[in-house]
Please model this.
Amino acid sequence: LLPHSPQASCDDLCLPILLLATKADLRPSHSNRWIDPSKGRELARDHGAAFFEVSAKTGLNVIDALEHLVR
Model:
């Protein structure tokens, strides 16, 4: 069972956590956003995770997120 928060013990297993906001290519159309990016950053911070807005369509931040994951 994985820890649910960064405060949980990592004696057996410690995994990096990423919170990815997808569909970043739709940014100009704010009506398509489900969650404000500031809320995503806050949620990630609260859980000790990194936050990236990504787009599979354009490739925006995909490499950055993966590089962060393997550091």
